[in-house]
Design brief:
Elements lengths: L1 H33 L5 H5 L1 H35 L5 H35 L4
Helix pairs in contact: 1-3, 3-4
């Protein structure tokens, strides 16, 4: 179980680095547009940067959702192979519970991020 927690912490740290670096890169691209630079980002306006950020976030949330489904399957296998051992059964139930919570959070995060990007029109 400690390995799963450590793995989750590493994944969360890597995801947070991506979430922080993508908007910073987008801001730097827009500052270059203000100086008269001619690039695809400057010509395309907000749509390309918004699409870029949205694609990164959606890909990460897809990976998180897939990991949650995999953990749900692992929890189910652990539950069926627990053979009545109460500690293994409890651990398997906790794995299933945390996988479902992770899946629900990934779905809500997907909805919130897409809503915010569409409403805020990042880069304006």
């Amino acid at each position: 179980m400690k390995r799963f927690v450590l793995f989750g912490a590493v994944v969360a740290l890597m995801a947070s680095l991506v979430f922080v670096s993508a908007p910073v890169q987008a801001i730097e691209l827009y500052q270059a547009c203000g100086s008269g630079a001619a690039s695809e980002v400057c010509a395309g306006g907000d749509e390309q940067v918004n699409g870029f950020i949205k694609n990164i976030v959606n890909t990460l949330l897809f990976i998180i959702g897939a990991l949650a489904v995999i953990m749900l399957i692992i929890g189910g296998i652990r539950y069926t192979t627990s053979a009545g051992n109460s500690s293994q059964t409890t651990a398997a139930k906790n794995t299933i519970l945390y996988a479902i919570v992770g899946l629900v959070l990934a779905i809500f995060a997907y909805a919130i991020v897409n809503f915010l990007i569409d409403r805020l029109q990042l880069g304006n």
